Structure formats: C-alpha cells, structure tokens
Amino acid sequence: MKILEYIGLDTSRVDASYRKVADAIARHDFRAAQVKKLANLSHGKFYRAKLGGADRLLFSLVRHGDEVCALMLE
C-alpha cells in the first residue's frame, strides 16, 4: 500500500516509531501497527495507529486512481 502524507504532518518527535508503523501499514500489517477504526464519526472513515506511550497516528484510507493509499493526517 502506498503511503501519502499530509503536507503539514510533523513526525520529527516520533520519527522512528512513525517509520515503523508506516512500514507496517504499507505491508497491510494492521495488527503490527495496532490499528483501530475510530467509531461514531459523521464524516469519513478514520483509523488510529499506536506509535507508543500516548502518541497516536491518525490516518484514512483513500483511493488514488485504481490504488488504495493510506493518507497520514496527524
């Protein structure tokens, strides 16, 4: 899966864990990235992945052409 990043995404504080989680998501290994779908949202489907401690990654799955991509948001 291709990883797309929001322009304003700053991962400098959690760069090592972000890379590890992004690589797992790119391999479709959602269990290793500890991904959970966020419920009770009115717009869109959002997911969160645990980066460690209190840090979480918010992302969405989007279609780009005929390919599904993970859009990293926050």
The count of strands amounts to 5
Shape estimate: globular
N to C succession of SSEs: EHEEEE
Q: In what order do the strands lie side by side in the largest sheet?
A: 1-5-4-3-2
Rg, rounded, reads: 12 Å
Topology-level CATH name? YaeB-like fold
**Low-pLDDT residue spans:** none
Give the strand content.
35-45%
Structural class: alpha+beta
**Main beta sheet: strand number and arrangement?**
5 strands, mixed
Layout of secondary structure:
Elements: E1 2-5, H1 15-26, E2 35-37, E3 47-52, E4 55-64, E5 67-72
Parallel strand pairs: 1-5
Antiparallel strand pairs: 2-3, 3-4, 4-5
Kindly describe this structure.
This protein has 74 residues and is an alpha+beta fold. The protein has one domain (2-72): YaeB-like fold (2-Layer Sandwich), CATH 3.30.2310. It is built from 1 helix and 5 strands; from the N terminus they run E-H-E-E-E-E. It has one helix at 15-26, and strands at 2-5, 35-37, 47-52, 55-64, 67-72. Strands 1-5-4-3-2 form a 5-stranded mixed beta sheet, with helices on one face. The two termini are 19 Å apart. The relative contact order is 0.28.
Summarize the structure.
This protein is an alpha+beta fold and 74 residues long. Helix content is 16%, strand content 39%. The mean pLDDT is 91.
